[in-house]
Specification:
The chain is an alpha/beta fold and 316 residues long. The protein is 42% helix and 15% strand. It has one domain: NADP-dependent oxidoreductase domain (TIM Barrel). An 8-stranded parallel β-barrel has the order 3-4-5-6-7-8-9-10, surrounded by 5 helices. The protein has a two-stranded antiparallel sheet with strand order 1-2.
């Protein structure tokens, strides 16, 4: 397997693997076998993945626990681990959102579940319009200054919200977010390319993107259609991606991938990573072979003529 390539997280000094491993919709959900989690995480680590992404809401903490159990076997300085805060974790008025109380308590709870002393990255998992931006930024700044977090970021924030947070932090001598985590793929791109990337690039922030394979659509697994009960159609996000138009586009990409001698999974990841503003593409995996295919998406350079060919398919 080819060596992993690494990129800086925006203008920060932190480097992350081009392909990273996330726990969303897998550990504690479709994968409950701890040995399988161990095999997947170990394979990622052995092949150069140094960035592992989590959130407290993933299986209500179970995903953090299962991945943390494996990561504890690795030297702490050798990997980057993130988690997130926002969604409801406790059934009381302060059990969700981005109040200072919920941010600090959630961070401590996630660290306890993963048996860690600090997170390399900690994300605001959505924007919270019920909390003053000043309170949000100061709470994350406090986490950094207290040593529980090294860097903080945003996830699915608007460009205006991201810019406001950075400007407030800069004006008040506080730590600003260094990374945004949006959904981004060949089949879900306009928001990122038109709104988010221009802003994060201007601010010197990195992007670590989720669902770069469009929840499996871009792998070709649905070439023959959508089977009843397919997990893709269980969520609103998946139902929006699971269109006949998108299926036809993915089928048309097969000849492009075949000419390059790679799979459509690897083509989709190479397409994401063609953009220097993207620091890492976060993939999920329910089995080792699935992960091994994704890992081969690093280091692939796409010629401009081939990118133009893909644009014709995607815009057709």
């Amino acid at each position: 397997m080819k060596l992993m390539d690494y990129r800086k997280l925006g203008k920060s000094g932190l480097k992350v693997s081009e392909i990273s491993l996330g726990g969303w919709a897998t550990y504690g959900f479709s994968v409950n076998d701890q040995q399988m989690v161990r095999d997947i995480v170990q394979t990622a680590y052995d092949n150069g993945v140094n960035f592992f992404d989590q959130a407290d809401i993933y299986a209500k903490g179970k995903s953090e626990e299962m991945m943390g159990e494996v990561l504890r076997d690795f030297e702490r300085h050798s990997y980057v681990i993130s988690s997130k805060v926002f969604w409801p974790m406790w059934d009381h008025p302060n059990g969700r959102g981005l109040s200072r109380k919920h941010i600090l308590e959630s961070c401590d709870a996630s660290l306890k579940r993963m048996k860690l002393e600090y997170f390399d990255l900690y994300f605001a998992h959505r924007y919270d319009p019920e909390v003053p931006l000043e309170e949000i930024v100061r709470a994350f700044d406090h986490l950094v200054r207290s040593g529980r977090v090294l860097y903080w970021g945003t996830s699915e924030w608007s460009a205006a919200e991201i810019r406001a947070a950075c400007e407030f932090a800069q004006a008040n001598g506080l730590y600003a977010p260094v990374v945004e985590q949006p959904q981004y793929s060949m089949l879900y791109r306009q928001r990122v390319e038109n709104e988010i990337l221009p802003t994060t690039t201007d601010l010197g922030m990195g992007l670590v993107v989720w669902s770069p394979l469009a929840m499996g659509m871009l792998t070709g697994k649905f070439d023959e259609g959508f089977a009843p009960g397919a997990r893709l159609t269980d969520t609103q996000i998946g139902r929006e991606l699971a269109s006949e138009e998108n299926r036809a586009k993915v089928q048309a990409m097969k000849s492009v991938a075949d000419d390059l001698g790679i799979s459509r999974t690897q083509l989709a990841l190479a397409w994401i990573l063609r953009n220097p503003g993207v620091s890492s593409a976060i993939v999920g995996a329910t089995k080792v072979a699935q992960l091994e295919e994704s890992l081969k998406g690093t280091g692939i350079k796409l010629e401009e003529s081939l990118i133009a060919q893909l644009e014709n398919i995607l815009n057709g």
